[in-house]
Structure formats: C-alpha cells, structure tokens
C-alpha cells in the first residue's frame, strides 16, 4: 500500500506534497511522487528538473518517510500516469491539487482532476488550490 501524489514545480506542487506527506505519515505507508509531461514535451512547465525531484525526495526522507519519485516524460496524460502509478503500487490514496476552472476551460482542456477522481480504483484526496496562485 502507498500514497501516490501528483507533483508540479512551484507552490501548488509543494502544497500537494505537504498533504500527501501527512497522509503517508498517518497511514504509515510509502509515498510515491509522480511528475509527468505529455508526449515527450521536455519543455513542459509541469516537468520538474531531476535535481528538484531529488531534493524533494531527500527532504521527505529526512522526515522519516519512505519515498519514491517517478518522472514520466512520454506520458499520454498526467491523469493516466497517476492512475497507473496508483495501480502499480497498490495505492490506498491518490493526492492531487484542485483548482477552480471555467466551464469553457474544462471543455477545451479536459480535466486531469476529474479523470483521476473518476478513474482511480482507490480514494482520491483533493488539495484545494486557490486561483490566485
């Protein structure tokens, strides 16, 4: 059993990881941090530098957590990557960030959060991210 968390660089990602770390501590399970880019897009703003992922892993391990970081650079979608990681690791929880989007934004861009919420075989915890971040 694990907790799986989606990570993007910046404050949003740090808030999601903070929530995921709390859940992993309470549940006494490993934390799997997943960072994803779509279709080999190495310039994707959501793709974290490997040094950042390594530093994140070290910080979480210093807190006493067992942590694995994964980076998918050839993913079809971030949602599928998270759902796949959850299935592979037998996750009991997936942690994602949620932000308010307009109806048009959801229609044009799809919704990673919605796909994870509806497609995950385990519980999903949404960390509310304000729109001004």
Explain what the structure shows:
The chain has 133 residues and is of the alpha/beta class. It has a single domain (2-128), classed as HUPs (Rossmann fold), CATH 3.40.50. It is built from five helices and five strands. It has a five-stranded parallel beta sheet with strand order 3-2-1-4-5, sandwiched between helices. The chain is globular, with a radius of gyration of 14 Å. The model has no long low-confidence stretch (mean pLDDT 87). It comes from Prauserella alba. It holds the Pfam family Usp.
Short description:
With 133 residues, this protein is α/β, with parallel strands linked by helices.
Task: Break the fold down into its secondary structure elements and pairings.
Blueprint: E1 2-6, H1 11-27, E2 31-38, H2 50-62, E3 67-75, H3 78-89, E4 91-98, H4 103-109, H5 112-119, E5 123-128
Pfam families: Usp (PF00582)
Domain UspA: 9-126
InterPro entries: Rossmann-like_a/b/a_fold, Universal_stress_UspA, UspA
